[in-house]
Write a structure and sequence with these properties.
The complex is a heterodimer of chains A (107) and B (256).
Chain A: H1 2-8, H2 12-21, H3 29-40, H4 46-58, E1 62-64, E2 74-76, H5 78-106
Antiparallel strand pairs in A: 1-2
Helix pairs in contact in A: 2-3, 2-4
Chain B: H1 10-26, H2 31-46, H3 68-92, E1 96-99, E2 102-105, H4 111-131, H5 137-155, H6 160-179, H7 185-206, H8 214-238
Antiparallel strand pairs in B: 1-2
The chains are: A mainly alpha (107), B mainly alpha (256).
Chain lengths: 107, 256
């Protein structure tokens, strides 16, 4: 977890949200913003969105498609999908373990 | 609002300006968004992600995977360490003077070197603080204290408590950076070990418990150099760490 923060700093969490937003198909910037807000309940600022998009694009986790009416959609790459899956499975393992402990403590 | 886009670097604007403008048109920004855009522009200067050739619209690769700013800060810090050693040599070879304070070696000529060395260290410490995750508040506070107090001490080197405070700040920063995984153990050990050795030698010296000699001051000074080495090395190595990396077995062989 800290490995993630080392490199992406404050963009680690927004990057994860963006990968999730793109997991069901390509989206352009505004659609990503609204989707992230729907998922998390918290709006993502435009500076944060493009800071994270630039990082993900440079790392090959997303790629830009041809612009459509000035809007440029982004899609998840194979590496992005694999990375997202690894992150989510790590979180699921963590949550499962934590809930199990909590359950034991409450018995 | 569109004028804020001019705050971004040229390469960034060449790549993202059109779609960013459209985004802002689709979602009129409130005050928080404006602040976020300014933060984004500062970040784009500090951590350039788009480094294409002039006129290129594609994000350029970063051959060794390191951030330029992190690497630059690391080298600046190490250069500060070299200046610190220059200051030591100059101070220890200062002229012997006789005045109302008695006979002593005048190290005033070393002051500019020492001040610049500490300022460069503070720049490096700032780089470390900036990269710390949110869970390392104590490290950020320790670093901030050292950034402020270090240069003040360098300007008034006879006020030893200031150096003690700065040393505590450097130690807390190193320990916290290691605790949260931002630093390797080696870098934290260099800083903490150096500070322990420096003060084990320096404290009795400054309290007059042991005779003050050129060698003892030189050893104290040399041990403190570890702070520059640890911080500089940590900055150089920090951006080489993988991020959001999938487990090795899951990484597709054709992608990197």
């Amino acid at each position: 977890m800290t490995e993630t923060h080392d490199d992406l700093g404050r963009f680690a969490e927004p990057s994860l949200y963006i990968l999730v937003a793109l997991s069901d198909g390509p989206k352009h910037g505004y659609a990503i913003m609204t989707d992230v807000e729907a998922i998390t309940g918290t709006p993502m600022g435009p500076g944060t969105l493009y800071g994270a998009l630039a990082r993900l694009e440079r790392r090959g986790m997303i790629e830009a498609l041809e612009p459509e009416d000035r809007r440029r959609p982004y899609r998840l790459t194979g590496l992005g999908a694999t990375t997202l899956r690894a992150q989510l499975e790590g979180m699921r393992g963590f949550a499962g373990s934590a809930l199990e402990r909590l359950g034991r403590a409450e018995r | 609002m569109m004028h804020l886009i001019q705050l971004f670097p040229r390469d960034w604007r060449e790549r993202y300006e059109a779609e960013f403008q459209l985004l802002l048109a689709e979602r009129p920004p409130d005050l928080r968004d404006r602040v976020d855009v300014v933060r984004g522009a500062i970040d784009a200067h500090l951590h350039p992600q788009v480094q294409g050739e002039p006129g290129s619209t594609a994000p350029g690769p970063e051959p060794d995977g390191r951030s330029i700013s992190g690497r630059a800060l690391g080298w600046m810090t190490l250069a500060g360490g070299a200046l610190w050693l220059v200051a030591m040599v100059v101070a220890l070879n200062g002229p012997i003077v006789h005045d109302t304070f008695g006979e002593y070696r005048d190290g005033a000529a070393a002051a500019p070197f020492a001040l610049l060395a500490i300022v460069l260290l503070s720049v490096g410490v700032f780089g470390v603080v900036r990269s710390l995750p949110r869970g390392a508040a104590a490290g950020a506070i320790g670093g901030a204290v050292a950034i402020i107090v270090g240069p003040i001490w360098a300007a008034m080197p006879w006020v030893i408590p200031l150096l003690v405070i700065a040393s505590v700040g450097w130690a807390v920063l190193a320990a916290e950076a290691r605790r949260v995984g931002a630093w390797r153990s080696l870098d934290a050990a260099i800083v903490l070990g150096g500070l322990v050795v420096a003060w084990a030698l320096g404290a009795p010296l400054m309290m007059g418990l042991v005779a003050s000699t050129l060698d003892s001051y030189a050893l104290f000074w040399l041990a403190l150099t570890s702070v520059w080495i640890g911080v500089g090395h940590a900055l150089l190595m920090a951006d080489r760490r993988p991020v959001l990396e999938p487990a090795p077995a899951e990484r597709p062989s054709g992608e990197s």
